[in-house]
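Could someone model FE2/S2 (inorganic) cluster with this protein?
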Amino acid sequence: MTKQTLPNDKPIMGEIVEKWGECFETYCFKIKLPVKVQSANPGQFIMLWVPGEDEYPVGIAGLKDSILEVGIAKMGPGTEAMHKKEVGDLVGIRGFYGKPFTPPEGVNHLLIGGGFGMTPLKLLTEKLMSNENKQNIHVFEGARSKDRLMYLKWLQDFHDQGKINFHVCTDDGSYGYQGFPTVDLEMFLQESETPSVIYAAGPEKMMKAIFDLGKKFANVIDMQMSLADRYMRCGFGACSSCAVDPTGWRICVDGPIFNTEKLEKISDFGVYKRLETGEKKRI
Ligand SMILES: Cc1cc2nc3c(=O)[nH]c(=O)nc-3n(C[C@H](O)[C@H](O)[C@H](O)COP(=O)(O)OP(=O)(O)OC[C@H]3O[C@@H](n4cnc5c(N)ncnc54)[C@H](O)[C@@H]3O)c2cc1C
Ligand code: FES
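Reply:
Sure, complex below.
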């Protein structure tokens, strides 16, 4: 260990020290960083370079003793190449980038997500468990079927130990209740009198539905959402490939976490995203 910080202008090579199949077409990796890094904030991301293939943004699921945890869902060639990596292989990392979640104290913390959106929510759950009243931490996860639920055992174990409240559902009813996570979220908001903050990460359509629901409840004092379902090239504000309309905010530096006040101003939110060419595509 020579350096004390992770460089964010060029990749630094880290060694994969652990790999496991987390759920359907999703692998998790622990990567040993060659520098001492103290902590990462939930919601921040890295740029992961898979040598010979591609570099792309990935959320931080954990960081302890300079060992970084990531979860990679199969999408295309870049993520498939990472899935083929094994313990002992080297990958490039630069970061940490972006604005994190900022949980206030004394509220209900309602974390809601699906797919690879669960990676920043894992780190957020961990941080909240170390600080907050456990009764106030609620994690809502939804997936098409049981085999697609990310961190299922990890979350279910904390629920069984009374450390969090885990609300889980699947489209096909193979685990938890049948339906969408917004069903339980809405029921919770109807019954709760304590102010709540919603933290969401996942497909943008789902986040927009959560946002529209949250706006109906006066007890929702803020919503913080990760606009990570979008294309990024540089990750540090230089190329504008992640800019949103009409504000021109770049998701990599002004986000990826945006709060209610900012989300209200992004007309693209839940409607359009940009392709690699810069062209806008309806979500
Ligand atoms: C802030 C942020 C955090 C992310 N965190 C995770 C994570 O923790 N785990 C995970 O599995 N995925 C994560 N992603 C998504 C991941 O970066 C893309 O799925 C990945 O780039 C796909 O590459 P591919 O070559 O496998 O697929 P491709 O065939 O290249 O693309 C598949 C899909 O991913 C999109 N995509 C391609 N390249 C990028 C890129 N550079 N940036 C964003 N989207 C892209 C494409 O528009 C397409 O919709 C995150 C994205 C962002 C913006
Ligand atoms: S990815 Fe280049 S400015 Fe955001």
